[in-house]
Design a protein that fits this description.
about 220 residues; seven-stranded mixed beta sheet
Protein backbone atom coordinates (compact mmCIF):
# COMPACT_ATOMS: atom_id res chain seq x y z
CA UNK A 1 0.00 0.00 0.00
CA UNK A 2 1.25 3.48 -0.84
CA UNK A 3 1.14 6.13 1.85
CA UNK A 4 1.00 9.88 1.35
CA UNK A 5 3.96 11.50 3.09
CA UNK A 6 5.19 15.03 3.45
CA UNK A 7 7.34 16.92 5.93
CA UNK A 8 5.57 19.22 8.36
CA UNK A 9 7.09 22.38 9.78
CA UNK A 10 8.40 21.49 13.24
CA UNK A 11 8.49 24.51 15.53
CA UNK A 12 9.42 22.78 18.79
CA UNK A 13 12.12 20.40 19.93
CA UNK A 14 12.29 17.50 22.33
CA UNK A 15 12.40 18.54 26.04
CA UNK A 16 11.11 22.04 25.20
CA UNK A 17 8.45 23.45 27.54
CA UNK A 18 5.30 24.68 25.84
CA UNK A 19 1.87 26.08 26.68
CA UNK A 20 -1.20 24.19 25.49
CA UNK A 21 -4.00 26.65 26.41
CA UNK A 22 -6.80 24.12 26.82
CA UNK A 23 -4.59 21.67 28.74
CA UNK A 24 -1.78 23.44 30.60
CA UNK A 25 1.99 23.81 30.57
CA UNK A 26 3.68 20.78 29.05
CA UNK A 27 6.95 19.37 27.77
CA UNK A 28 7.72 17.84 24.37
CA UNK A 29 8.69 14.22 25.02
CA UNK A 30 9.06 13.06 21.46
CA UNK A 31 8.45 13.99 17.82
CA UNK A 32 7.43 10.93 15.84
CA UNK A 33 5.63 9.69 12.74
CA UNK A 34 2.40 7.73 12.66
CA UNK A 35 0.33 6.25 9.85
CA UNK A 36 -3.34 7.22 9.95
CA UNK A 37 -5.93 7.00 7.16
CA UNK A 38 -3.27 5.97 4.60
CA UNK A 39 -1.21 9.01 5.45
CA UNK A 40 2.01 9.40 7.40
CA UNK A 41 1.69 12.24 9.89
CA UNK A 42 4.19 13.78 12.29
CA UNK A 43 3.14 14.18 15.92
CA UNK A 44 4.29 15.93 19.06
CA UNK A 45 4.10 13.73 22.13
CA UNK A 46 3.51 16.14 25.03
CA UNK A 47 3.44 15.50 28.76
CA UNK A 48 0.99 17.77 30.64
CA UNK A 49 2.07 18.09 34.25
CA UNK A 50 -1.14 19.45 35.80
CA UNK A 51 -3.22 16.48 34.60
CA UNK A 52 -0.37 13.92 34.54
CA UNK A 53 -1.35 13.01 31.00
CA UNK A 54 0.29 12.57 27.64
CA UNK A 55 -1.28 14.10 24.53
CA UNK A 56 -0.27 13.44 20.97
CA UNK A 57 -0.86 16.41 18.67
CA UNK A 58 -0.33 16.44 14.90
CA UNK A 59 2.48 18.88 14.11
CA UNK A 60 0.29 20.59 11.50
CA UNK A 61 -2.45 21.28 14.08
CA UNK A 62 -0.25 22.69 16.84
CA UNK A 63 -0.64 26.34 15.82
CA UNK A 64 -4.39 26.01 15.34
CA UNK A 65 -4.68 24.57 18.85
CA UNK A 66 -2.76 27.54 20.26
CA UNK A 67 0.32 25.58 21.32
CA UNK A 68 3.23 27.97 21.80
CA UNK A 69 6.58 28.24 23.59
CA UNK A 70 6.87 29.47 27.18
CA UNK A 71 7.30 33.26 27.12
CA UNK A 72 10.52 35.02 28.12
CA UNK A 73 10.87 36.27 31.69
CA UNK A 74 10.20 39.92 30.78
CA UNK A 75 6.87 39.05 29.14
CA UNK A 76 5.88 36.88 32.09
CA UNK A 77 6.60 39.72 34.53
CA UNK A 78 4.65 42.15 32.35
CA UNK A 79 1.64 39.81 32.52
CA UNK A 80 2.04 39.68 36.29
CA UNK A 81 2.10 43.49 36.49
CA UNK A 82 -1.05 43.72 34.36
CA UNK A 83 -3.01 42.00 37.13
CA UNK A 84 -2.84 45.23 39.10
CA UNK A 85 -4.34 47.37 36.34
CA UNK A 86 -7.79 48.91 36.65
CA UNK A 87 -10.46 46.69 35.17
CA UNK A 88 -13.10 47.78 32.70
CA UNK A 89 -16.82 47.20 33.35
CA UNK A 90 -17.99 43.87 31.98
CA UNK A 91 -21.28 42.60 30.62
CA UNK A 92 -23.96 41.51 33.09
CA UNK A 93 -24.78 38.53 30.84
CA UNK A 94 -22.64 35.82 32.45
CA UNK A 95 -23.02 33.44 29.51
CA UNK A 96 -21.66 36.06 27.12
CA UNK A 97 -18.93 36.88 29.64
CA UNK A 98 -18.02 33.19 29.91
CA UNK A 99 -17.82 32.74 26.15
CA UNK A 100 -15.67 35.86 25.75
CA UNK A 101 -13.22 34.60 28.36
CA UNK A 102 -13.25 31.08 26.93
CA UNK A 103 -12.32 32.51 23.52
CA UNK A 104 -9.47 34.44 25.16
CA UNK A 105 -8.21 31.27 26.81
CA UNK A 106 -8.23 29.42 23.51
CA UNK A 107 -6.17 32.23 21.94
CA UNK A 108 -3.75 31.46 24.71
CA UNK A 109 -1.40 34.43 25.00
CA UNK A 110 -0.14 35.06 28.51
CA UNK A 111 -1.65 38.56 28.38
CA UNK A 112 -5.07 37.06 27.56
CA UNK A 113 -4.75 34.54 30.38
CA UNK A 114 -3.83 37.30 32.84
CA UNK A 115 -6.85 39.31 31.63
CA UNK A 116 -9.17 36.39 32.41
CA UNK A 117 -7.70 35.98 35.89
CA UNK A 118 -7.96 39.71 36.65
CA UNK A 119 -11.51 40.03 35.35
CA UNK A 120 -12.94 36.95 37.06
CA UNK A 121 -11.13 37.60 40.33
CA UNK A 122 -12.74 41.02 40.66
CA UNK A 123 -16.04 39.67 39.40
CA UNK A 124 -15.99 37.17 42.27
CA UNK A 125 -15.56 40.05 44.72
CA UNK A 126 -18.88 41.49 43.57
CA UNK A 127 -20.86 38.25 43.25
CA UNK A 128 -20.08 34.56 43.51
CA UNK A 129 -19.06 33.07 40.19
CA UNK A 130 -21.26 30.45 38.51
CA UNK A 131 -19.77 26.96 38.36
CA UNK A 132 -18.48 27.26 34.78
CA UNK A 133 -16.83 30.61 35.42
CA UNK A 134 -15.20 29.26 38.58
CA UNK A 135 -13.78 26.35 36.56
CA UNK A 136 -12.55 28.75 33.89
CA UNK A 137 -10.98 31.04 36.50
CA UNK A 138 -9.24 28.14 38.27
CA UNK A 139 -7.87 26.80 34.98
CA UNK A 140 -6.64 30.20 33.77
CA UNK A 141 -5.06 30.95 37.15
CA UNK A 142 -3.25 27.61 37.26
CA UNK A 143 -2.01 28.10 33.70
CA UNK A 144 -0.76 31.60 34.56
CA UNK A 145 1.03 30.38 37.70
CA UNK A 146 2.70 27.52 35.82
CA UNK A 147 3.91 29.67 32.94
CA UNK A 148 5.23 32.51 35.11
CA UNK A 149 7.01 29.95 37.31
CA UNK A 150 8.57 28.29 34.26
CA UNK A 151 9.61 31.62 32.72
CA UNK A 152 11.08 33.16 35.89
CA UNK A 153 12.52 30.10 37.62
CA UNK A 154 10.45 30.83 40.74
CA UNK A 155 8.45 28.22 42.62
CA UNK A 156 4.72 27.93 42.03
CA UNK A 157 4.10 28.96 45.64
CA UNK A 158 6.14 32.15 45.16
CA UNK A 159 4.28 32.99 41.97
CA UNK A 160 0.92 32.31 43.60
CA UNK A 161 1.78 34.82 46.34
CA UNK A 162 2.91 37.39 43.76
CA UNK A 163 -0.34 37.03 41.81
CA UNK A 164 -2.41 37.42 44.97
CA UNK A 165 -0.44 40.53 45.96
CA UNK A 166 -1.17 42.11 42.57
CA UNK A 167 -4.88 41.28 42.63
CA UNK A 168 -5.87 41.91 46.22
CA UNK A 169 -5.08 45.64 46.66
CA UNK A 170 -7.25 46.55 43.68
CA UNK A 171 -9.86 44.04 44.81
CA UNK A 172 -10.11 45.74 48.19
CA UNK A 173 -10.70 49.09 46.49
CA UNK A 174 -13.13 47.90 43.87
CA UNK A 175 -15.08 45.31 45.80
CA UNK A 176 -18.09 47.65 46.08
CA UNK A 177 -17.80 48.96 42.55
CA UNK A 178 -21.00 48.19 40.60
CA UNK A 179 -19.36 46.53 37.62
CA UNK A 180 -22.41 44.41 36.94
CA UNK A 181 -26.16 44.57 37.16
CA UNK A 182 -26.88 43.32 40.70
CA UNK A 183 -30.05 41.68 39.41
CA UNK A 184 -28.37 39.51 36.79
CA UNK A 185 -28.95 35.77 37.10
CA UNK A 186 -25.93 33.47 37.26
CA UNK A 187 -27.69 30.17 36.76
CA UNK A 188 -25.49 27.92 34.64
CA UNK A 189 -27.50 24.70 34.92
CA UNK A 190 -28.46 24.71 31.25
CA UNK A 191 -25.28 26.08 29.73
CA UNK A 192 -22.94 23.53 28.18
CA UNK A 193 -19.36 23.31 29.40
CA UNK A 194 -17.02 23.70 26.42
CA UNK A 195 -13.90 24.17 28.49
CA UNK A 196 -11.85 21.10 29.22
CA UNK A 197 -14.14 18.79 27.27
CA UNK A 198 -11.18 17.35 25.38
CA UNK A 199 -9.91 15.75 28.60
CA UNK A 200 -13.27 14.21 29.46
CA UNK A 201 -13.86 12.83 25.99
CA UNK A 202 -10.40 11.58 25.13
CA UNK A 203 -9.06 9.75 28.21
CA UNK A 204 -7.88 6.29 27.24
CA UNK A 205 -8.41 2.98 28.98
CA UNK A 206 -5.30 1.32 30.40
CA UNK A 207 -4.53 -0.69 27.26
CA UNK A 208 -6.16 1.36 24.51
CA UNK A 209 -5.11 4.42 22.57
CA UNK A 210 -7.71 6.78 21.12
CA UNK A 211 -7.05 8.71 17.93
CA UNK A 212 -8.41 12.08 16.86
CA UNK A 213 -7.73 14.45 13.98
CA UNK A 214 -6.66 17.23 16.36
CA UNK A 215 -5.04 15.38 19.22
CA UNK A 216 -4.67 11.99 20.87
CA UNK A 217 -4.68 11.71 24.64
CA UNK A 218 -3.52 8.77 26.73
CA UNK A 219 -2.94 8.10 30.38
CA UNK A 220 0.64 8.26 31.56
CA UNK A 221 0.52 4.57 32.50
CA UNK A 222 0.19 3.65 28.79
CA UNK A 223 3.52 5.13 27.78
Amino acid sequence: MLYCYYMSEINFKVDQKIVYPSQGVGRILEIFEKQFNDKTTQYYKIYIDVSDMIVMVPVDNATMLGIRPIVEEAEALAALESLGETIEPVTSDWKLRYQMNLDLLKKGSIADIASIVRSLYHRSKVKELPILERKLYDSARKLLIDEIASATGKSEKEVESMIHAKLEPLGAINVKKPLLDPNDEDDDDEFSDDFGSSNDDSDDDDDEEEEDTDEDVMDDDDE
